[in-house]
């Protein structure tokens, strides 16, 4: 309980600090409603189905070094015409064949709130797992539900995620295997930006209400903090590639990492 109170206290400090910095002008891009950015041409060119391909030197996720090998990630999805609803498939594979992941997700955005459900299936360490087996003792899946809120006045964003089913487990006092319902809280803040770049800092913490140990570690604590820099890389003055680098430290696992990601299309 003491660790949880410390986490709440640090998030309050983060909010207060961000509010004070928010009074300064960093030339950030205003959060315009998507409707104001649409033209008649963009409305006519609406495509309900899209896909993207990203290449990374490694794969980081919520303080986890999911894989240390270079990998590719494909994202195939449907989106509504107003862009608020998405349903898609996300798949990643390592260049050396030591990492495999295949996820399904739904998301809905409204008034700076985003609600998402992800069925995450990293089968790397579960070679014998069956694709449709959701038994907590055997499955390679876990289902993550999250809600994100982005503030209007300042570039500050909060996310609360809870794993509601799957391989997020602990053994209770009776020796039974139960779901830990692990929670993950994250706050991110853009400290500076320009026309085609931005620099943000973030901090994330993990805990469970029913167990000391949880999905991200053996105790309550900050498992993900660092900074991220993104920019548009111009090639031959004709092509633009979004590039992002993320420096991450994990206090619970006692390691750090640097990820570089390039969105090819």
Précis, in short:
The chain is mainly beta and about 260 residues long. It has helices at about 1-20, 35, 40-45, and strands at about 50-55, 60, 65, 70-80, 85-95, 100-110, 115-120, 140-150, 155-165, 170, 175-180, 185-195, 195-205, 220-235, 240-250, 255-265.
Characterise this structure.
The chain is mainly beta and 265 residues long. The protein has one domain (2-263): Porin (Beta Barrel), CATH 2.40.160.40. Helix content is 11%, strand content 52%. It contains 3 helices and 16 strands. The strands form 3 sheets. A 12-stranded antiparallel barrel has the order 1-4-5-6-7-8-9-12-13-14-15-16. Strands 2-3 form a two-stranded antiparallel ribbon. A two-stranded antiparallel ribbon has the order 10-11. A hairpin with a 5-residue loop joins strand 5 and strand 6 (100-110). The longest helix has 20 residues, at 2-21. It is globular, with a radius of gyration of 20 Å. The model is unreliable at 16-41 (pLDDT under 50).
Give me the Rg, rounded: 20 Å
The chain-level structural class is: mainly beta
Percent helix? 10-25%
CATH superfamily: monomeric porin ompg
Number of helices: 3
> How many domains?
1
Biggest pleated sheet: 12 strands, antiparallel, barrel
Uncertain spans, ≥5 residues at pLDDT below 50?
A: 16-41
What is the succession of H and E elements? Answer: HHHEEEEEEEEEEEEEEEE
CATH topology: Porin
Q: Please give the CATH architecture.
A: Beta Barrel
The proportion of residues in beta strands is: over 45%
How far is it from the N-terminal to the C-terminal residue, by CA?
A: 45 Å
Number of strands: 16
Q: What is the 3D shape?
A: globular
The oligomerization state is: single chain
Query: Mean pLDDT, rounded to whole units?
Result: 87
Briefly, what CATH class? Mainly Beta
Strand order of the largest sheet: 1-4-5-6-7-8-9-12-13-14-15-16
